[in-house]
Design brief:
The structure is a single chain. This protein is α+β, with helices and mostly antiparallel strands. About 35% of the residues lie in helices and about 35% in strands. It contains 8 helices and 17 strands. Strands 1, 2, 4, 5, 8, 9, 12, 13, 14 and 15 form a 10-stranded mixed β-sheet that branches. Strands 6-7-3-10-11 form a 5-stranded antiparallel β-sheet, with no helix packed on it. Strands 16-17 form a two-stranded antiparallel ribbon. The longest helix is centred in the C-terminal third of the chain and has 32 residues. The protein is rod-shaped, with a radius of gyration of 50 Å. It starts with a helix and ends with a helix.
Length: about 450
């Protein structure tokens, strides 16, 4: 039992009452500060909770780059668009399916091996007006990009603009005449602009969803000059934590950027892999560097911790209230001690201002008194009364009281002994007692 009592961490100290039933000194200034702290804290908590529930608090986002280990991505239909912009309406459109000059062919590769080859001409091919003139837009169907660093496996694809070949056309399509082709390839004035648009993605932290962002490049195209363009896509692996109390993690990957490199090549560059007649090629592959992004949304604990830090800052105001209450308590005690030292002070109605200075003095009859002289007297009494707040002074007074009590008891005992020895009559005992007290008092002095 004793050991359990010894380790009790919830012991309570004895609190003496200051006055009446009050164990603590409280003031209206302290009440105002308390109300201010609680009001601001509650308002901040409510505003943060509303903002958190509406998704207004920004998440913590960290990113880092690393060597890609395994990437697998499928370009959905219309994710890649290829167009050619003619400067005037009179320029020859090489993508015209009725008089085709350039056929866009997609080659799917696994390593260096060709898996599949097909034209990306579709029935949805469109021709629109553009600031440069007319624009023909071609779109791809679903196509895969894969990379694995462990097995050095790579799956990529290439879009090649090749001189028209019938084997890649269907029944409703046909190549242009040799005369038109020769005119197109030999005409040095034929200048066009290739437009390549790729649909990339970014993570929107406000909606917690991925959004599509088209990335468009404009490339000068000259039929007489074969060119090679490589597009290296950078993958981003995102990890999103949307837990309210405990972690709730979802993972996904998307293409967030790409690097484009273009260079001119010789006329025989494509012969071994693709065959002759290739004018322009777009090689799609993965970058060996990927990006990892972690998105952590504030949970309930983070919100409460944020509110707690602000509350701790507001609680600094409590020291003002504590200091003021301590000051008022001391002033009240000093005034009570002064009334015991000089009881005549009770005959006056003294009012103090907020900082403890005497504001007005009136007699019991309501007559105004001289504040200046009263303040001087009160200041001297206050200085004397302040000694009573010292523990040493209180102990000294207690000892003095005990000595005085002993002296009184001694006088009473001596008077009784004298009366018994002298057998003095009752009417004379009073006179003898007074004389005896006088003698003892002088000897004590």
């Amino acid at each position: 039992m004793y050991q359990l009592k010894h380790i009790d961490q919830f012991g309570v100290p004895l609190q003496l009452k200051i006055m009446n039933n009050d164990k603590t000194k409280k003031t209206f200034i302290g009440g105002i500060i308390t109300l201010t702290i609680f009001s601001l804290s509650l308002g901040y908590l409510i505003s943060n909770m509303i903002c958190w529930l509406e998704g207004g608090l920004p998440p913590i986002i960290t990113t880092n780059l690393q060597m890609a280990e395994s990437i697998n991505y499928t370009f959905q239909k219309n994710s890649i668009q290829l167009g050619i912009l003619n400067q005037t309406d009179n320029d020859i459109d090489p993508f015209d399916q009725n008089n085709n000059i350039l056929t866009p062919i997609l080659f799917e590769f696994e390593g260096n091996q060709v898996l599949n080859t097909y034209s990306i001409f579709t029935d949805q091919q469109t021709i629109v007006k553009h600031v440069y003139g007319s624009k023909t837009i071609l779109t791809t169907s679903n196509v895969d990009l894969q990379y694995n660093s462990a097995s050095d496996y790579l799956r990529s694809f290439v879009i090649v603009l090749k001189r028209c070949e019938k084997e890649f056309l269907n029944e409703s399509q046909k190549c242009a005449s040799e005369e038109m082709m020769s005119q197109y390839f030999l005409d040095n004035k034929q200048q066009s602009i290739l437009q390549l648009s790729v649909m990339l993605e970014q993570f929107d932290s406000l909606t917690m969803q991925k959004i599509s962002i088209p990335q468009t490049y404009y490339l000068a195209f000259t039929p007489q000059l074969p060119q090679y363009t490589q597009l290296s896509f950078q993958a981003t692996n995102v990890q999103v934590n949307k837990g309210v109390i405990f972690d709730s993690i979802t993972k996904s990957s998307y293409l967030s950027g790409m690097q484009v490199i273009t260079q001119a090549v010789g006329s025989n560059f494509y012969n071994k892999m693709i065959g002759d007649g290739a004018i322009y090629s777009f090689v799609f592959t993965f970058s060996r560097i990927s990006s990892d992004m972690a998105v952590t949304y504030p949970n309930l604990g983070v919100v409460l911790a944020s509110v707690g830090s602000i509350v701790q800052l507001l609680l600094l105001l409590q020291y003002i209230a504590l200091g003021y209450n301590e000051f008022k308590l001391e002033e009240q005690l000093l005034h009570e001690i002064i009334t015991y030292i000089k009881p005549s002070i009770r005959d006056y109605k003294v009012k103090f201002n907020i900082i403890g200075q005497i504001a007005s003095v009136k007699s019991i009859k309501g007559e105004d008194q001289d504040i200046k002289s009263f303040r001087e007297i009160y200041a001297k009494l206050k200085s004397e009364a302040s000694q009573w707040l010292s523990i040493l002074h209180i102990l000294k007074e207690i000892i003095q009281c005990k000595e005085d009590k002993g002296f009184v008891e001694e006088k009473r005992s001596a008077q009784y002994e004298t009366n018994q020895l002298l057998d003095i009559p009752e009417d004379e005992k009073v006179i003898v007692g007074q004389m005896n007290n006088l003698v003892r008092y002088k000897s004590h002095k």
